[in-house]
């Protein structure tokens, strides 16, 4: 049986609203994950430190890599005073949700803030909450 013109007009009427609802639901779920990650004090501190690395880390520890790559995981771990595995888990979760960007250079991994994602979070809070 072939579809006739007009049989799916309702789709064109309701589909855009449905798609926007789906996008809002996915955005809401995504933001819930961000809030879970930000509920940890160490993760919030790490984001704060990476906002202005020169104010929070010694120059010897972060230069010259900080401009191109970010701050090395071992430097973050030392400042946070937590284990290497916990630091790695925290940083990985922050990369997975988009709050941080990571760059692997040899045996070292460097992290910096993803300002676009942080702005998206700020906009969500301003618009929705």
Q: What would CATH call the homologous superfamily? A: Winged helix-like DNA-binding domain superfamily/Winged helix DNA-binding domain
**Through-space gap between termini:** 49 Å
Report on the biggest sheet: 3 strands, antiparallel
CATH architecture: Orthogonal Bundle
Order of helices and strands: HHHHHEHHEEH
How much is the radius of gyration in Å?
A: 21 Å
Percent strand: 5-15%
Percentage of residues in helical conformation: 55-70%
Total strand segments: 3
Q: Residue-averaged pLDDT, rounded?
A: 82
Q: Tell me, briefly, the overall form.
A: globular
At the third CATH level, what is the topology name?
Arc Repressor Mutant, subunit A
Low-confidence stretches are 18-23
Number of helices: 8
Under the CATH scheme, which class? Mainly Alpha
Structural class: mainly alpha
Order of strands across the widest beta sheet? 1-3-2
Whole-number count of domains: 1
Structural notes for this entry:
The chain has one domain (9-128): Winged helix-like DNA-binding domain superfamily/Winged helix DNA-binding domain (Arc Repressor Mutant, subunit A, Orthogonal Bundle), CATH 1.10.10.10. The longest helix is centred in the N-terminal third of the chain and has 30 residues, at 9-38. It contains eight helices and three strands; from the N terminus they run αααααβααββα. The chain has helices spanning 9-38, 41-51, 53-56, 59-62, 65-68, 73-80, 84-96, 115-128; strands spanning 71-72, 100-105, 108-113. It is globular and about 40 Å long. Helices cover 68% and strands 11% of the residues. Helix 6 crosses helix 7 (84-96). The chain has a three-stranded antiparallel beta sheet with strand order 1-3-2. The protein is mainly alpha-helical and 129 residues long. The termini are far apart.
